[in-house]
Design brief:
- The chain has about 475 residues and is of the alpha+beta class.
- The strands form 3 sheets. The protein has a 6-stranded antiparallel β-sheet with strand order 2-3-13-11-8-9. Strands 4-5-6-7-10 form a 5-stranded antiparallel β-sheet. Strands 1-12 form a two-stranded parallel ribbon.
- A hairpin with a 2-residue loop joins strand 8 and strand 9.
- The longest helix is centred in the middle third of the chain and has 25 residues.
């Protein structure tokens, strides 16, 4: 067996004076000594793999003498076995952790150590106290008032039938809008009723919101029209009457805004009455074009006129047909729908706020149709509302009869904290017939900030048993 380098370590390991652990029988050869040393160090643990012994070079000098049996086993493993000898298989090394690396110096303010992972012997800490603030639970989607829920589903189920050549006649299930001008906040919503949703019928109510003009002279119009149940064309009539009334108001918005800010109620009522009559004349002409009776192509119309002037709190309502006008004041609802006079019992002159008699024109005055700025009775230009028509020629070939229902008008002054609600008949009927609905809306809208669009839509959709028609509501919150 060839020895490499200095043999001092070999002489110390096999010193003749040292007692042999397993005396071997004579003759005592080198191979027998190797086998004896290997058998003696078999049960010792192997060195960690991270620090293998380095073989010293001849120039580095003799290595230090091993002081443990583990070092001796490492040295013996480095010695190649003799020819023909099979070295014993060492046992698997035990799992010894790697020596920890030198940890860096902790910062001046070390963050708190994370909580230990829970184990079988870990006692959990006490649960943190519950927050004191109570988070309100979200409102259910199928919210209703009354003793029992409504019959129909709360969400849309069937779409209305469509024709390829009449796609402009389609009506959305829900319309939502809002604005803020001057001292008021406006919210408007129109929703298809539960009955129409179930049967796949179109929404018969129409809603139109428009602003004409700029700055404080701007005029806001909200028009609501409700069609009849017994005609399949009334949703088209409702859309037509809203569009035509908006066109007429837009042409005369400057003068109308001036009259509202000046509180000229008599001029407003006379002029808006004439404008509404001519709008219904166009509606009857459209019915004739379609080959329908006027009763088949008609809709009730209710409008609000609001100025953007923060110093003006006059709110003007006008229209024809069923519906409701309500005011929430001091936490209670007031039904302020204008009362219709009974011709059989009406005595005396006109009532202030509901119109005034037209001013008389002198006998020598020229024809009002030829004088800009006057009407047939000598009133201001508001009476004509900018409607363009040739002189001495009626608006239509045959002057239409007045609408079947009388004209309604009201101009009132709002107070801070008031809420004005204009409703179609689908919302006005449950407001009058189900006290729990009025109480619920009063609790939600009194003494609070105006709701957002989504909240207002949810409020107007409060369902009531026995009321499944379309609902359209326009609310004005006064700051």
């Amino acid at each position: 067996m060839t020895q490499q380098g200095d043999t001092n370590w070999w002489d110390k390991l096999y010193d003749a004076s040292a007692e042999d652990t397993t005396p071997a029988p004579t003759p005592d050869s080198l191979d027998e000594r190797y086998d004896s040393a290997a058998a003696t160090t078999t049960d010792l643990p192997a060195p960690p793999p991270e620090a293998p012994p380095a073989v010293p070079s001849p120039a580095s000098g003799p290595p230090p003498a091993p002081d443990t049996d583990a070092d001796a086993a490492t040295i013996l493993d480095a010695v190649p076995p003799p020819p023909g000898a099979v070295p014993p298989t060492p046992p698997p090394p035990p799992e010894t952790p790697a020596p920890p690396a030198e940890a860096p110096a902790p910062p001046a303010e070390a963050p708190p150590a994370p909580a230990p992972e829970p184990g079988p012997d870990t006692v959990p800490d006490a649960a943190p106290p519950a927050p004191t603030a109570q988070v309100p639970a979200p409102r259910p989607r199928t919210e209703h008032v009354g003793s029992r829920p409504p019959t129909y589903e709360a969400e849309p189920t069937a779409l209305p039938a469509a024709r390829p050549d009449e796609l402009d006649a389609l009506v959305a299930d829900t319309v939502l809008d809002g604005a803020r001008y001057g001292a008021y906040t406006l919210r408007a919503a129109s929703v298809r009723g539960d009955s129409a949703r179930f049967r796949g019928e179109p929404r018969r109510d129409a809603l139109l919101t428009a602003r004409f003009g700029q700055d404080e002279a701007a005029l806001v119009l909200v028009a609501v029209a409700a069609g009849r149940r017994d005609s399949e064309h009334t949703h088209l009539a409702a859309a037509d009457v809203c569009r035509w009334i908006a066109e007429s108001v837009g042409r005369s918005h400057s003068r109308l805004s001036e009259d509202i800010r000046a509180a000229r109620r008599g001029d407003l009522k006379s002029g808006l009455h004439r404008l509404t009559d001519r709008t219904y004349g166009k509606l009857r002409a459209r019915a004739a074009e379609r080959g329908l009776d006027p009763e088949e192509y008609t809709a009730g119309l209710r409008c609000l006129l609001l100025t953007a002037d923060p110093d003006c709190r006059t709110r003007v309502f006008f229209g024809i047909g069923a519906g409701g006008l309500f005011r929430l004041r001091d936490g209670a609802w007031q039904d302020i729908e204008p009362l219709l006079p009974d011709p059989a019992t009406t005595v005396g002159g006109p009532v202030v706020g509901f119109g005034s008699p037209p001013r008389q024109r002198p006998a020598t005055a020229p024809d009002p149709a030829e004088v800009p700025g006057t009407g047939d009775d000598g009133d201001r230009l508001t009476m004509r509302l900018g409607v363009a028509e040739p002189p001495n020629r009626p608006y239509v070939e045959d002057p239409p009869p007045p609408p079947a229902e009388p004209f309604r008008f009201r101009a009132s002054v709002a107070r801070p904290g008031d809420t004005l609600l204009l409703a179609s008949h689908g919302l006005a009927e449950p407001m009058r017939g189900e006290p729990s609905l009025a109480r619920e809306l009063a609790a939600r809208w009194a003494g609070a900030e105006p709701p957002g669009l989504a909240a207002f839509l949810a409020d107007t959709q409060l369902r009531v048993t026995g009321y499944a028609d379309d609902r359209t509501g326009v609310a004005v919150w006064e700051a």
